Amino acid sequence: MLITICSDVHDNIWKLADALPGMNDGKVLLFCGDFCAPFTLDQMARGFDGPVHAVLGNNDGDGRLLSRVAAAAGNVTLHGEMAELDLARCRVAINHYPEIAAGLAASGRYDLVCYGHDHTFQHEQVAGCWLVNPGEIMGRFGRSSYVIFDSTAGTVTIREV
Prior knowledge:
Elements: E1 2-6, H1 13-23, E2 28-31, H2 38-47, E3 52-54, H3 63-73, E4 76-78, E5 83-87, E6 90-94, H4 98-106, E7 112-114, E8 121-126, E9 129-134, E10 145-150, E11 155-160
Parallel strand pairs: 1-2, 2-3, 3-4, 6-7, 7-9
Antiparallel strand pairs: 1-10, 5-6, 8-9, 10-11
Helix pairs in contact: 1-2, 2-3
């Protein structure tokens, strides 16, 4: 299964618009936090064809409106601060923070752990688990990027926007 992973849009709806066509190569989208405004979540929901699983980051201020937008979208599950999923027998955890993600990956409970927060693309295997930070959609601190994870092949591919 192809899984799209992205993080840290920070309301850069222009970069998000550029990224969404390629992001649709994945069957499911995992978002690791920091939409910022609810209109960014709305754009993501409308622009991605499959299910979207999202966690909150430290800059997602209006949780109530984000929840309403997610519910209205029909394809978004807003999990709060952490999500645990089973995607085609791939055990997945999503959160925003690197230090939490590192502990989750080391636990041996997951095949894939995704996080954001520091806006830096990183990927490594920890205890047989892929630990992945897709970088930032925002593009403030460097390249704008997201990841396509192939759960069958076990590969991580970065895509620049």
